[in-house]
Amino acid sequence: MKNAKQELLHILKDTRLVKCATIHKLNIYKDDKNNESKVLKLNYTEDDYNEFLNKLDFEYNEDYGTQILYGIVWLEDNTWLLREEYDGSEWWKHITIPEIPVECYI
């Protein structure tokens, strides 16, 4: 089991600032109160950020089975985190813009 909030904070540990985010949790159990979308809007306040993180403060099974979390976290350095999955195992993938190759320059 993993805590969604701690997992996100762990990958953000190297000072990449969050620009905005949308994270969705799969509705597995009808009585689960954490199924709503978690959205952090542009130009958020510190209170907005803390509320967003508190909505992610739940345990889920990240191992093989069904993907639970979906979403994108946009970062201030123009990179982003994308939720990836293979055979039910899931993780955050940090995506960067590739270098422009030399042959593309004049």
Question: Can you describe this structure?
Answer:
By secondary structure, this protein is α+β, with helices and mostly antiparallel strands. It has one domain (2-104). 17% of the residues lie in helices and 34% in strands. The protein has a 5-stranded antiparallel β-sheet, with helices on one face. 14% of the residues are buried.
How is this fold's topology laid out?
Layout: E1 2-3, H1 4-11, E2 18-25, E3 38-40, H2 46-55, E4 59-60, E5 69-75, E6 80-86, E7 89-95
Antiparallel strand pairs: 1-4, 2-3, 2-5, 5-6, 6-7
Descriptive tags:
106 residues; alpha+beta; two-stranded antiparallel ribbon; 7 strands; 34% strand
Total discrete domains: 1
- The stretches of 5 or more residues where confidence is low (pLDDT under 50) are none
Structural class: alpha+beta
Number of extended strands:
7
Task: Give a short summary of the structure.
The protein contains 2 helices and 7 strands.
